[in-house]
Structure formats: structure tokens, C-alpha cells
């Protein structure tokens, strides 16, 4: 591998469309130095091939991200809304004011309610709840799932959307 023709620190990057040019012994790579100065470096053919592949991979990533990126203009007026309706907790607070969501947990069994509160309000992990309750982690997870399922059944159809799980729980007979 040859040395750069100009001085520069190690912060060089590939530059331009024809950044790698082939030669009989290897290839010449044009890199941009720290001040934007272009520097030619002679490298082996294997290194030049690896640089071409890296550049192609970076180009593909940029194209993929550009395809899958939406601006606020493309999303419509609801995406840029800053009113209280756009807040995810707005519907939940609306139900809390009606006392319906507050009354539902009181209809849960005491063990399920206690474990659900420790997990959601106090933010204790399942392992810690199991240690404090003196039971297995599996029992805590089962109890939490049953509590969520029972709350879903007790709430009206309008409230169910706010409690939709990430993945559906299997129904038990």
C-alpha cells in the first residue's frame, strides 16, 4: 500500500463517483482529507474491491432509508397536530375523568390487582414481584395476563382500543 501524496489525518473518506480507479498493480483511491482536500492513495486490488463494496452498501442504505422516510407534509394534517387530541394519553384521561376506568380494577381479584399495580404503577419487574410474593415468575406472568384479560372484558368496546395488547393473548376455556 502506498502513502498519501498529501498530508492529512486519519479522518479521510471516499469521495466522488470515480473514487476508485483501477491500475495494473492495484488501484488509486481518492479520499477527502480534513479540510476537504482531495488525496490520491494507491492501494491493493483487494482493498479497492472492499472499498467499492462498502461504498455500494452505503449507497443502498441511503436509498432504502430515503424510500421509507415520510415527511410531515406526506403524513397529512393530523401528524402535525399539537392539540390535546393528538396526545396518546388523552383518551385514557378522558376515561379516567368518567371514573369508569378507575372502577374496573376494583373488580379484579386482590392478588391480580396487587401484582398488576406493582408491575404497572411501581414498575417492578416480574422477577422482583415473584420474589416479594414468594411465587414463581410464571405465576406472576399468568396473573398479569389474567388481570389484563379481565379488565379488557369489563371495559366497554370504546375503551378496548386503549388496552389492545402488542400480541394477542390466547384465550383459555
From TrEMBL:
Example GO molecular function: DNA binding
Alphabetized InterPro entries for the sequence: RNA_pol_sigma70_r4_t2 (IPR013249), RNA_pol_sigma_r3/r4-like (IPR013324), WH-like_DNA-bd_sf (IPR036388)
Entries under SUPFAM superfamilies matching the protein: Sigma3 and sigma4 domains of RNA polymerase sigma factors (SSF88659)
Biological process (GO), any one: DNA-templated transcription initiation
Pfam families given in the database record: Sigma70_r4_2
Domain RNA polymerase sigma factor 70 region 4 type: 106-151
The UniProt record lists the keyword Acetylation: no
Keywords recorded for this protein, A-Z: Sigma factor, Transcription, Transcription regulation
Stated family: Belongs to the sigma-70 factor family. ECF subfamily.
Protein name: RNA polymerase sigma factor 70 region 4 type 2 domain-containing protein
Species this chain originates from: Candidatus Olsenella pullistercoris
Phylogenetic lineage: Bacteria, Bacillati, Actinomycetota, Coriobacteriia, Coriobacteriales
Amino acid at each position: 500500500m502506498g502513502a498519501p501524496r498529501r498530508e492529512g489525518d486519519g479522518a479521510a473518506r471516499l469521495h466522488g463517483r470515480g473514487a476508485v480507479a483501477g491500475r495494473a498493480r492495484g488501484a488509486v483511491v481518492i479520499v477527502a482529507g480534513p479540510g476537504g482536500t482531495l488525496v490520491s492513495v494507491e492501494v491493493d486490488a483487494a482493498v479497492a474491491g472492499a472499498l467499492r463494496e462498502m461504498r455500494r452498501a452505503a449507497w443502498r442504505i441511503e436509498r432504502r432509508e430515503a424510500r421509507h422516510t415520510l415527511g410531515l407534509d406526506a403524513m397529512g394534517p393530523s401528524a402535525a397536530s399539537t392539540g390535546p387530541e393528538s396526545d396518546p394519553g388523552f383518551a385514557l384521561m378522558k376515561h379516567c375523568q368518567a371514573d369508569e376506568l378507575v372502577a374496573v380494577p376494583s373488580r379484579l381479584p386482590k392478588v391480580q390487582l396487587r401484582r398488576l399495580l406493582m408491575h404497572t404503577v411501581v414498575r417492578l419487574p416480574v422477577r422482583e414481584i415473584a420474589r416479594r410474593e414468594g411465587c414463581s415468575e410464571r405465576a406472576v406472568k399468568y396473573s398479569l395476563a389474567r388481570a389484563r384479560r379481565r379488565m379488557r372484558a369489563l371495559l366497554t368496546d370504546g375503551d378496548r382500543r386503549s388496552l389492545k395488547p402488542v400480541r394477542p393473548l390466547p384465550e383459555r376455556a
